[in-house]
Amino acid sequence: MENNIVLEARSICKSFHDPVKIDVLKDVSFKLSRGEYASIIGRSGSGKSTLLYILSTMDTDYTGELFIDNVSIRNKSEKELAAIRNEKIGFVFQFHYLLNEFTALKNVMLPGFKLNKLSEAELEHNAYEFLKDLGIEKLAHKMAYQLSGGEKQRVAIARAMINDPLIIMCDEPTGNLDSKNADIVFNIFKELTETFNKTLLVVTHDLDFAHKTERIIELDDGRIVGD
Amino acid sequence: MKVKHITEIAIALMLARWKQTLVAAIGVTFSIAFFISLLGFMEGLNELLDGMVLNRTPHVRLYNDILPSKLQPIDLSKEYKNHHNFISSVKPTNTRKEIYNAQQIINQLNKDERVIGVAPKITAQVFYNLGNIDLNGIINGVDTEKEAKLFSFSDYVIDGDYKELKIIPNSIILGKGAADIMMAKIGDIITVTSTEGEQFSLKVIGFFQSGIADIDKVQSYASLSTTQKILGENSNYISDIQIKLKDIDQAPALAREYGNFFKIDAEDIQTANAQFETGSSVRSIISYAVGITLLIVSGFGIYNILNMLIYEKMDTIAILKATGFAGADVKKIFITISMSIGIAGALAGLLFGFLLSLIIDAIPFHTSSLPTVTTYPINYGIQYYSIAAIFALATTYLAGWLPARKASKVDPVLIIRGK
Ligand SMILES: Nc1ncnc2c1ncn2[C@@H]1O[C@H](COP(=O)(O)OP(=O)(O)O)[C@@H](O)[C@H]1O
Ligand SMILES: [Mg+2]
C-alpha cells in the first residue's frame, strides 16, 4: 500500500431506516493522499455530511471499509476511535461550535489536553501561534461567545490544527460566513496544505470555493458521480 | 487525560450554572447538618434516659431470693427416686434475706479484676408516719461514698449534703415525692415504723430525686447502720451486694459465675432492664431512617442539576466527543461535577451539623425529674459525622453516575446534525 495515502474509503454504504429504508450512501470509494486539498460537492441531501461523519469515525453504523493512515478502523472500540479522532483528524463544522464556557485560547487547547503529549505551557504556546497565524491572537483571551462568526470559525480551525492531525475535515465551513470571511477561510486552508502539508477534505455547496481546490469529488444521491 | 484538565472542564460547566449547583450543594449541606444534629440529639436523649436507670443500677446484684426450696423432702427419698411427684402450694421457709458471709464476698469481689467496685445495700420496708396516716416506704441502707462513686448517688440528692448521712446518726435522705406528701423540710424529724412495729425518729438531712415519680414517693436513703438498727439486725447484716463491672456486656456471664461460686442469687442488668435497650434502639432506627431519607433527597437534587446540565450542554458534549474525548472522559467530567457538589456540600454540612449540635447543646432544658440536666443532651460521636459523610458521598456518586453515563452515551452526530 502506498504510504502517502492518509484516508481510504472502500465501498461505503449507509442507509437510514426512518421510517422506510433510504440508501443515503451507495458504494462510495476514494483515496486521499497526503497534502491533497479536496472538496466534496453535491446538492443538498446528497449525503455529503453523512459521508463526512463516517470518515471522521463519529458514525460507525455503515458497511464497507475505512482506512485512516492505512489502518482499518473496523472493530475499534469507542475509546480507540476517540483517540484516532483526537490525534489524526481535525474537524471544522458549519456552525463554529466552540465551548462558550472557555476562552478562544482554551478552546484551541482542549483537544491537546486530551492528547496529553505536550505540557500545558507548550500547548498554550502552540495554540497562541496558530491564532497568530490566523490573525486573531488579540482575541486569545476573549470568551468564545464574544467572538463574531468569522472569528469563531478561525478559532475552530486553530483547534482542528492543535494536535497536528493528518487530515482536516470541514463540513460547509463557509456556509455561515459572508464572502469576505469565506475568502479568508479558503486562503487559510490553502496555506495549510501548502505550508503545513496538511490534507484537507472540505464539504461545500459553494461551487466557487470548490473550483479553487485541487480536487472535486461530486456526490449525487449517495453516489460519486465525478472525481 | 490529566485530572487537572477534567477538573478544569468540570468547573467551567459548573460555573455556567452556578446558582443551581449551589442549591444542590446546599441541599447536601442541609441534609448532612440535620442528619448529624438529629442523630446526635437522639443519641444524647437515649444516653440520658438510659443513664436514668443504667447509671444507677448495679451491673450484677447478689441477693437471697425468697423462693421455696428446690429440693423438697420427697426428692431426697431413695424409695421414690424414679417417680414423679406433684406438690402444690409449696411455701418458702426459714429463708434469710441476709447474705451469709457478705463481707468476705465483698472482699473477694474487690480483688476481681473485672470489677470496678462493690457496694453493699440493705432495704428496709417501713411506714412513714404522718399523723394518723401511714405511708408505705422503703429505706435503702447504703454506703454513701461507694454509692456516690459507683452509682452517681450524689447527682440525685437535690438538697442537703449526702455525706452527712454517715456522720449524723439516725439521719435520712427522703425521696422528693415522699417529702412533698409529708411536707418535710431539711432539719425536720420524721417518724417511721418498721415492719416489726418499732418506731424510729429520723432527721431529714436532704432530698432525693431519681426522675421516676413512683420511686421518689416511696424510696429514701439512710446509712447502713441506721437501716440495720431499723431492721433490728446486727452490723454484719447485708441483704444486697451491688457490683459495677468494667464491661457491662459481661454482666450476664459474670452473674452466672458469681451465682454459682457464692451459691447465691445473681441478677444482671440486661435481665433487669431489658425494655430500655429496646426503646433506645427503636429511637435510633427512626432517627437513622429520617436522616438517611434526607441524604437521599439531597441526592435527587444533584441528580436533577446534572440532568439539566447535560441537556443544556449537549453541544459541549458533542464537540468534546468530536474532538476526540471518549465517553469515559465525558463521564469523568460529570462525575467530577457531582462529586465536587457532594464533597463541598458534605464539608459544609459537617461543619453546620457541628454548629447546630452546639446550638442545641446550649438550649436550656430543665426538668424536675432530671436534676443534673440543664441543657438539651447532644452526643458528639464521630460515627455520625463519618456515616453522614460516607453516605452523602455514596448518594452523590450514584446521583452523578446515572446522568454521567447518559452524557457519555451522547451521539455527537445526532447533535451536530441537529443544528
Ligand atoms: N437520522 C436520519 N434519519 C433519516 N434520514 C436521514 C438522517 N440523517 C440524514 N438523513 C437523510 O440522509 C440524506 C443525506 O443527508 P446529508 O448527509 O445531511 O446531506 P447533505 O449534507 O449532502 O445535505 C438526506 O436525505 C437526509 O434527509
Ligand atoms: Mg450537510
From TrEMBL, chain A:
Transmembrane parts of this sequence: none
Superkingdom, taxonomy of origin: Bacteria
Keyword terms of this UniProt record: ATP-binding, Nucleotide-binding, Translocase, Transport
GO MF assignments: ATP binding; ATP hydrolysis activity; transmembrane transporter activity
Any one of the GO CC terms: membrane protein complex
Annotated ABC transporter domain residues: 7-225
Family: Belongs to the ABC transporter superfamily. Macrolide exporter (TC 3.A.1.122) family.
Record protein name field: ABC transporter ATP-binding protein
TrEMBL record, chain B:
Major location category of this protein: membrane
Residue spans crossing the bilayer: 21-42, 285-306, 341-363, 383-402
GO biological process, one term: lipoprotein localization to outer membrane
InterPro entries xref list: ABC3_permease_C, Lipoprotein-release_system, MacB_PCD
Ranges for domain MacB-like periplasmic core: 21-257
Location relative to the cell: Cell membrane
Coiled coil: none
Gene Ontology, cellular component aspect: plasma membrane protein complex
Pfam families: FtsX, MacB_PCD
Superkingdom assignment: Bacteria
Entry membrane topology: Multi-pass membrane protein
Residues annotated as domain ABC3 transporter permease C-terminal: 290-412
Keywords from the UniProt entry: Cell membrane, Membrane, Transmembrane, Transmembrane helix
Family from the record: Belongs to the ABC-4 integral membrane protein family. LolC/E subfamily.
Protein name: ABC transporter permease
